Amino acid sequence: MALQKTFKESYANRLQYEAKHGISIERYSKPEFTYDKGQVLIIPTLEQPKGLLERMDAKDDLKSAKALYEAYVKLTPLQASDESFWTYLTHADLFPYVQQRNNAVLEEGFNDAKYIDNYFFHGNGGLIYHPLAGLWWDVHCTIDNDSVYPYKYTDYLFRDYGLRVTYMGRYALFRHKEQVFGILQFLMDNEDVASEHFRQRSRWISQYFNKVGAVKQLRSLSRDFFYSELERLKDVILRIKTDEDVKNDSLTADKTVSLVQDAEVKESPTEVKESVESFESTLPSDTYIIRNSGWGCCLINSNRHVVYSSSGKIANVSGLYFRVNYTYSRITMTLIEKQSNDEYVARKDVLSAKYQSQLYKLLDPKSYIEQLEEIKPSKNNPEEFVIKVSGVWFDHAGNKVEALNHQSFPLYCERIANIKQAKIHGEIILAKPVLLLALLDGVREMLFRNNRFVLNEWLKKHYESLMRKYTKQSIFDNITPINNPFWHLQSDGFWHLHYNGAQPTIINTPSVRWLEDNVNYASFDDDLWTLLQDRTSRQQLREFIVEHKLPKVK
After folding, report:
1. Which of 84, 113, 435, 439 is the most exposed place for a label (fewest CB within 10 A)?
2. Are the CB atoms for 350 and 320 separated by under 8 Å?
3. Strand stretches in 19-175, DSSP E
């Protein structure tokens, strides 16, 4: 394979100087850019990828960014900071792509030097504005190689050009992966934040952490900190609607630092008083009102007095009140009890489950309060509690305390072994077992935190990736689309579709669009879902599917 080429630094600088001053810019309108071959160097440690230009699409930045990054995945950050390298690619190997991407140069009579400087170099901005370097860095800073689908954050970043180039990309925080992951995960989990005024809110978030960086070593913090901090400030973020809000909101001033340093922020007395006075009816004497908000929580009695307030949320489970804190790193529950003066105080921690725990993985970040079904003293130790979530009991650390039904694993191995699979021209169609693998991987990656599976983009792409892996020897050119197994797996008895209304009568396999419009979600049997919450059982079930239902691949 040929080695990668680059321009001499002096020549790259000369090309940009000429572009800025309108010298020979007619070269950018021709099918090939004419450059001095004598100004080219070889990079001895980097191979030149084959077929990269064909894999790039001038109309699809995300596709092009992935192709570019994968082609130069061995590029070091130091090499990726070399403007001469990117100038060479822009004017030589990938010139047709850049020209099509910025096709104003193909218009008759084009003569705009500033346009060339901005769209074939990076103008007065940094490499994040470069037509190629920016794409590579966007992927490099968002790819999560520890995830089954490493482009989860990359896909989200490319939803909005301003987010990756202006609102986040131009800030130093974009070079710190844990910070990027925490912020993007928060945005992904809180669509109400990103659904409107996204430009202003993204700018506010970036500026907020930029200010926090003046007093905290952000590079030493994990994604949990950034996610939790944004969750705590969600109400503030939702109030950001204009450019003036970004500049003038009180949290962008000195209060930013004090708020970040105080992890246990409580509602102000004025805000609590106003919220209490908003109730218009007299409540029964035995009734308490729970008020949960982004700032915190409070418990209000029938006389409209706040008898307890704190950060987190309050949940009423099995007739008891608990303060619940859900962050990106753990979930905690603390029992709060009534005192003789009718005030409530925190008494006992009953749960502290880290994000790796079985319980945490089962929880939905948006509805975890509703998932807490029951709580009671442990049989083994009355001083401790066990918590029931989605039909499964967990201990103080979030581990299951009721052993799985020993018959469940062999039962579902047998049922999966007997799933109905079409056979066409002598070839058994692998769509159903591959879909099962994709679903199990989604549970492992915490993309499906409860027994509700939808046809989202991650599932579609991961299914396609697995299908291509296991159908390399197939006689068919195209893989089976995901709507086939998603629909037909229900005939095997352990996969269920839940419709928007009454189940419609369908004769043929419905399309993906039809499924998205008419099926709220799909689910496994409760026993199978419980089985999948155990990491060992889930992995063993996955290995069973690979061994017994799929061909061996190299």
Report:
1. 113
2. no
3. 40-47
Give tens-digit pLDDT for 77-125: 878 888 999 999 999 999 999 999 999 999 999 999 999 998 999 876 7
133 is written with which tokens? 């370097």
Q: How many CB atoms lie within 10 A of CB 531?
A: 20
Residue 325 · residue 312 · CB < 8 Å: yes
Question: What string of DSSP letters covers 370-386?
Answer: HHEEEEEE-SS-TTSEE
User: Which residues in the chain show pLDDT less than 50?
Assistant: 249, 251-286, 403-406
What is the C-alpha separation between 404 and 537, in angstroms, rounded? Answer: 9
* Burial (CB count within 10 angstroms: exposed 0-12, middle 13-18, buried 19+), residue 500: exposed
Amino acid at position 246, single letter: V
- Quote the pLDDT of residue 532: 84
Contact 168, 183 (CB under 8 A): yes
Tokens linked to 89: 């690619």
* Residues across the chain: 554
What is the reported pLDDT for 100? 95
Do 425 and 474 contact (CB within 8 A), yes or no?
no
DSSP 167: I
φ, ψ of residue 542 in degrees (nearest 5): -65, -45
Q: How far apart are CA 121 and CA 12, in angstroms?
A: 10
Inter-helix orientation angle 535-549/408-417, to 10°: 30
